[in-house]
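User: structure tokens for this one?
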Amino acid sequence: MITDTHRASARAATIVATVSSFIGPFMSSSVNVALPSIGDDFSMGPVLLGWINTTYLLSAAAFLIPFGRLGDIHGRKKIYIWGLFVLLISSLLIANSVSGTMIIACRVLQGLAAAMIFSSVIPILVSVVEPSRRGHALGIATAATYIGLSAGPFLGGLITQALGWRFIFWLNIPLALTLLLMTFLMLKGEWAEAHGEKFDLIGSAILGFALFATMYGFSTLPSVSAWFSLIIGILTISLFIYFEQRTVHPVFNIDLFRRNIPFAFSNLAALINYAATFAVGFLLSLYLQNVKGFPPETAGLVLMAQPIMMAVFSPLSGRMSDKVEPRIIASVGMAFSMIGLGMMIFLGSTTGLIYIIACLIVLGFGFGLFSSPNTNAVMSSVDRQVYGVASATLSTMRQTGMMFSMGIVMMAMSVMIGKAEITPASAGGFITSLRVSFGIFVGLCFLGIFASLARGNLNRNHQS
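Assistant:
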């Protein structure tokens, strides 16, 4: 029987998860628009500016699963609250930065905060909302994610233009304080289903090192040291898999990938989709401001086209996936993403604004079709007792995909323009790197269609 207390907890968890889901994407997408202004203040080239995003994503990807595991053992709300405190501190430091190096270092802290927040808040939501309303609650949180993505470029552009880029980070402080107040006042109880189990510190350290080595290698190609770093990263990932299979309480459950085909391929599809689409905002922000000459608020307004389509179609595709096989809808979405990215290969210095917006609309429509059904497939392919692990795994795939997306772009720009700032003289090299990046992304989406289809029919494979 569902009590009034339980309903109140479910409502509180939904509100907290929704506001949290807004903050992360808003922070990422608003920073994209501010990057050229940060570059002007600290004389940073595009490769160094790329590290402002990359260090954040690398930190989040490396710590997401360990903090998810710590939440299972010591309490998810406890980890979530600490994450909000770290977000407060890191935002305060970045808002008062005196160098590009300081910003990059503090973005590592922000990635740490994101890992603590997002490894905890969705599992809390799944833990307290009854199964019959879980999809609805997750849908609300997902919609907030896309609203954050939509509002970020526009509001970030306005803030950067009117007040300066530092105010984007000042804005995080009242948002984090509001969430802390809501959590203390509204979210009662604690959730720690793995209480008493040991934390896999060695496995967590191996995972973090593997991700760092791989990403560092990606970002410094084509140097000899980059290939060495990539090889070290791949070998360390193999060591991690070997170690986790022999650990009593692993930080990452390898068996979910070995024995659950829908889960494995749904996560692979998410990894590929984010790897192919995340860096679009970064590339187009630089393209619209430094090549097309638009001010930050105009660039932000143009970039809104993609997340608006995502916000409109993601809830619809999520409801459709309850009636139609999720893999079919998600695969169609991946195909539309490929078409949108393919259209972007033809961007140049004289491309019209209508064509740019059309590219973003097609890409946003594809992503909107893909995301909710794919999440539905992941969460529906596992039993209740591993919802937290499933959520953390999917989030890690997203973060890792984002990380590789930035790595691909940084590699292309390192080869084409090096560390030079983007000026009219270097615009040709930047456009070449942009086209190469989009070409790689099209190839990834093509592979992603097959990964999405290969998961099989969910209803046949899932054993409740």
